C-alpha cells in the first residue's frame, strides 16, 4: 500500500498477535478504535503461542496444550498470506479469522480458515499452509522480532511504538474487556503510552475477574 501524506503523519504502532488468543483479539479491536481517534497507524505482525510454549508443553494443562498445538495452523496460514500477498493482507485476514474464532465461536479447522480467506479476498489454497512447516522460518522470525522486544515471560499481544528518543518502546497488552470505544479508547491509549515510555517502568497488573466480552 503506497504511503500517503495522511499515513506518513501517523505514529506507527506495530502489533504482534496470535489469532487464537481471545485477549489479543480484544486488544486488537481496541487498537482499531484508537486509529479512529488518534493519529496512529497499526502495522500487523504474526507471533505464535505455539512457538512460545513449544518447549514447556509438559508444564501446561492438557486443554491448553491442545489449543496451542492446533494453533500452528492459523499462524502458518497468516504467514503464508503475508509472504505471497504482502503485509497489508494481515489485518483483514486477522479480522476475518478472529471474528469466526471468537465472536462466532467457530472451530479452528480448515473450513473456518477457508471461509476467512474468502472474506479477506485471498485464495483458499492458502489454507494448505496450515499443514506444512514451509513458512515456519518466517513465522519464527516474526515471532522473535516481537517477543524479543518484551521478553519471554509474556505472551500476545505485543505493541511497539516510537519512544521520545526515536527507539521502539514495546509492551505486552493492555489486557482489557470489553474493548473500549471512542474517547475511552483514546484515554487508554494515552495512558498506556505514558507508562510504557516511563524509564524503569515494567509492570502494572491485577487479577482478571472477567472473561473476554466479544461484541
From TrEMBL:
<keyword id="KW-0413">Isomerase</keyword>
<dbReference type="InterPro" id="IPR053977">
    <property type="entry name" value="Rv2466c-like"/>
</dbReference>
<dbReference type="GO" id="GO:0016853">
    <property type="term" value="F:isomerase activity"/>
</dbReference>
<dbReference type="Pfam" id="PF22234">
    <property type="entry name" value="Rv2466c-like"/>
</dbReference>
<protein>
    <submittedName>
        <fullName>Predicted dithiol-disulfide isomerase, DsbA family</fullName>
    </submittedName>
</protein>
<dbReference type="InterPro" id="IPR036249">
    <property type="entry name" value="Thioredoxin-like_sf"/>
</dbReference>
Amino acid at each position: 500500500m503506497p504511503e500517503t501524506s495522511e499515513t506518513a503523519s501517523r505514529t506507527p504502532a506495530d502489533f504482534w498477535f496470535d489469532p487464537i488468543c481471545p485477549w489479543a483479539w480484544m486488544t486488537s479491536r481496541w487498537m482499531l478504535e484508537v486509529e479512529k481517534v488518534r493519529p496512529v497507524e497499526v502495522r500487523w505482525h504474526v507471533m505464535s503461542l505455539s512457538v512460545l510454549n513449544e518447549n514447556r508443553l509438559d508444564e501446561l494443562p492438557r486443554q491448553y496444550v491442545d489449543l496451542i498445538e492446533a494453533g500452528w495452523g492459523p499462524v502458518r496460514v497468516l504467514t503464508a498470506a503475508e509472504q505471497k500477498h504482502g503485509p497489508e493482507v494481515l489485518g483483514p485476514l486477522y479480522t476475518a479469522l478472529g471474528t469466526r474464532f471468537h465472536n462466532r465461536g467457530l472451530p479452528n479447522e480448515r473450513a473456518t480458515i477457508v471461509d476467512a480467506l474468502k472474506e479477506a479476498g485471498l485464495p483458499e489454497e492458502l489454507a494448505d499452509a496450515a499443514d506444512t512447516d514451509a513458512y515456519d522460518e518466517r513465522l519464527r522470525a516474526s515471532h522473535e522480532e516481537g517477543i524479543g522486544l518484551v521478553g519471554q515471560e509474556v505472551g500476545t499481544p505485543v505493541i511497539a511504538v516510537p519512544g521520545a528518543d526515536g527507539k521502539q518502546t514495546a509492551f505486552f497488552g493492555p489486557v482489557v474487556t470489553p474493548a473500549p470505544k471512542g474517547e475511552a479508547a483514546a484515554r487508554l491509549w494515552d495512558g498506556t503510552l505514558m507508562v510504557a515510555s516511563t524509564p524503569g517502568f515494567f509492570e502494572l497488573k491485577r487479577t482478571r475477574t472477567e472473561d473476554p466480552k466479544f461484541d
